[in-house]
Amino acid sequence: MKQQDFLVCRCEEVTYNELMETASRTGCTARELKLRTRAGMGYCGGRTCRPLVQQITQKLEKAPHTRVTLKYQPPVRPISFGDLGGGEE
Amino acid sequence: MYDVIIIGAGPAGLSAAATTANQGLEVLVVDEYMKAGGRLLGQLYEEPDGTYWNGIKESNHLYERANQSGAEIKLGTSILNIEKSGDVWLVYTEKDTYETSHLLLATGAAESPSPVPGWTLPGVMSVGAAQVMTNVHRVKPGKRGVIIGVNPLAAVIASELQMAGVEVTALTLPQMNGLNEEAAHPKQVMNQLLHVAHMAPSALIRQGSKWMKPSIMQDLGITFYPKSGFKMWGIPVHLRKAVTEILGDEKVAAVKLATVKPNGDVIEGTEEIITCDFVCIAGGLYPLTELAAVAGCPFYLVDELGGYVPLHNERMETALDGLYVAGNITGIEGAKVAIAQGVTAGLTMASNHGVQGLKDRIEQSIEEIEQTRDNAPFHFHPDVKKGKQIVQEKWEEMMAAEQPL
């Protein structure tokens, strides 16, 4: 039975079919898949879909054991521009 | 300037806090949740000896102990970044920046619910979310739920929901897709369940599991697995049925369930609709390592531990000077192991800070972690000990290479 499509990255509205199609067409790494589709680049910083994006390309990537395939960057939690800039109240 | 900052007020963080503060160090614990206890808060289950493990009670106890030892505990505060400046670790929150010489990451684990069609509808949540709603906030997630994913975590939470008076209609597999292969494969799921069958509430399952060890028996077992499922705490557990879609216009109204072959393929024409008002997805847990990653810790991917873990030694030191880890960030295990690791991390930090005469106690605490692990009624991954060994080996390889980090 055909698999129905569904969202993987909610913030950037990237679907399962889009990710699978991109991965199999380009044979790309997790980082490239993220950059091509924007999955994991939304407001939440990939807190839900990061492991899923990694999983899609895990079989394609060579020896990813020693490094985290998708980079983490600060701030690791959403923050308002006011707080980030340290501006006046 | 603190002597020690601990990120995470779960079992590992709180136990490390009490340990270090009792050695006379000035300690700050920070956690983003409004209550202390971490994932321990939601736990409520019966131990093999018949007593109940109540996470809220255990959390309160750990919190009180840390508090009385003099540790400062700040809740509802997220850490956005950590970085080293000279000999000092800078810890950034939204409003303030704290400084410390010893920084412990006890950030625990996060859930990775595997998606199925319809999973973005309101009323769909991870099993952990349902657990926190029910046991911590005392809010029913709904009246009648379906749990997608058959694993120990799902079974425990199903029983907790039932204790809270919430009906769980079924535990069932998800339809197989590229993101859930193992969790959707009937035979593989059964194989994993056999590792925890000695914990089952039914004597029939406990006995039956002994006969099921050979692979041929597993083939037969899954082929003849009752189509209506096996009952656990009165809840049908389906290994030959899978959810193909969660249905509803504005929120969850039902799931579409189909019979699957032993390899997970859906059998056409077997679909049925089961009404419900909430759905829980039981995925796995993975170590929450984002702060270790931004700090620049070397990692290694260890499936037996749930994912990428920062390399560390038995004393819970990472490769970065003054940075330590304890609890589920080092691999997915139970709260008791986390508490034991917190003690070791705490003693190591105190010793590195200049407290004399802790060598024997550190050695002893390392042994206690091992013992706690051996005595655990079940392991999230059956080969967790092998995973720990891999980390140890990779750590030694890295040290032997003597590359300055």
Automatic annotation (TrEMBL), chain A:
Which residue intervals define the domain BFD-like [2Fe-2S]-binding in the entry? 7-56
| Pfam families in the record | Fer2_BFD
User: What Gene3D superfamilies does the entry give?
Assistant: BFD-like [2Fe-2S]-binding domain
What's this protein's name? Pyridine nucleotide-disulfide oxidoreductase
UniProtKB/TrEMBL annotation, chain B:
| Keyword check for Oxidoreductase | yes
According to UniProt, the name of this protein is: Sarcosine oxidase subunit alpha
Annotated FAD/NAD(P)-binding domain ranges read 2-342
Which Pfam families does the entry mention?
A: Pyr_redox_2
Matching PANTHER family, A to Z?
ANAEROBIC GLYCEROL-3-PHOSPHATE DEHYDROGENASE SUBUNIT B (PTHR42949:SF3)
- Is Oxidoreductase given among the entry's keywords? yes
The organism named in the record is: Thalassobacillus devorans
Instruction: Report keywords, A-Z.
Output: Oxidoreductase
The record's annotation in InterPro entries points to: FAD/NAD-bd_sf, FAD/NAD-binding_dom, Metab_Enz_Cyan_OpOx_G3PDH
The domain of life is Bacteria
